[in-house]
Design a protein that fits this description.
With about 260 residues, the protein is of the alpha+beta class. It is built from eleven helices and seven strands.
Length: about 260
């Protein structure tokens, strides 16, 4: 069965094409590359690999899996041999088909965002995602959350390898499909967080009064306190909130706070 699956994967190569820009980076060799991979073995042992937890490392130079823990077979139903021979292609094959489009859009977002940063900012870059896997044999839907950071950035600033720590979610999350965020620390200080539903780098124009409301929300003040401080009615505060939500593309106050806490308005 493994041979049949490998044959099918060799035929398709339909997912790794979305990562062609990553492979086109002009990579520089890393003198401690073997040590980096060996350190992953130590890491996986030190954290005491438990059920539903995976560590893996994508290599963007050849679009392969440079490292992954053995628990991947029990969790996904795909044999280790498949990941070793057809790593990245196999990894995306098991993604729920409804999540793949967003995943491939997100990798373009990550690539473009990462390469706009300074070298020092790139070393603080990280991202996370929530997605669905489909077990190869049982067809069970498995929700997972991954935390990712660059594991190997060469001296030219190219993103050569990443490190994923993936946890199985025992209960389905509130999101209905692929969800993501990325963040980094600016050279001048301050952490920037961008989420799937945030405005990204799009300019957001808030009025002077909306900016005042935003700042008070970030300070933890409620509508009544904002109303009294700004000498406006609670209904007016509510109107400002609705306008801010609309401009930020947020669906709730919690999401609004998450977005505005990451940007300077």
């Amino acid at each position: 069965m493994d041979k049949v699956l490998l044959k099918d994967l060799r035929k398709q190569d339909k997912y790794t094409k979305f990562f062609s820009d990553w492979a086109k980076q002009e990579f520089k060799a890393h003198p401690n590359e073997k040590k980096l991979i060996d350190n992953l073995e130590v890491l996986s042992q030190n954290i005491g690999m438990r059920e539903g937890l995976l560590i893996c490392c994508f290599d963007y130079r050849n679009l392969s899996l440079a490292f992954f823990t053995g628990e991947v077979e029990s969790l996904t139903g795909y044999p280790e041999s498949v990941f070793r021979k057809k790593g990245m292609e196999a990894a995306f094959t098991m993604i729920h088909e409804e999540d793949r489009k967003e995943l491939f859009l997100f990798q373009k977002v990550v690539f473009e965002a990462f390469h706009q940063l300074s070298l020092s900012e790139r070393h603080t870059f990280e991202f996370s995602y929530t997605t669905r896997w489909v077990h190869r044999t049982t067809r069970e839907i498995i929700w997972v959350m991954g935390k990712v950071r660059p594991y190997f950035i060469d001296e030219k600033g190219n993103f050569a390898m990443d490190l994923h720590i993936i946890v199985q979610l025992l209960t389905p999350p509130k999101v209905k499909g692929y969800d993501w965020t990325y963040s980094y620390t600016k050279d001048e200080g301050g952490r920037v967080l961008v989420s799937k539903n945030s405005p990204g780098r799009r300019e957001v124009k808030l009025t002077k009064k909306e900016k005042e409301v935003v700042n008070m929300i970030l300070e933890g003040q409620g509508s009544k306190e904002i109303s009294e401080a700004l000498n406006i009615s609670i209904n007016t505060v509510s109107t400002h909130r609705k306008n801010i939500l609309k401009k930020l593309g947020a669906r709730s106050t919690a999401e609004m706070v998450k977005i505005i806490a990451s940007y300077d308005f």
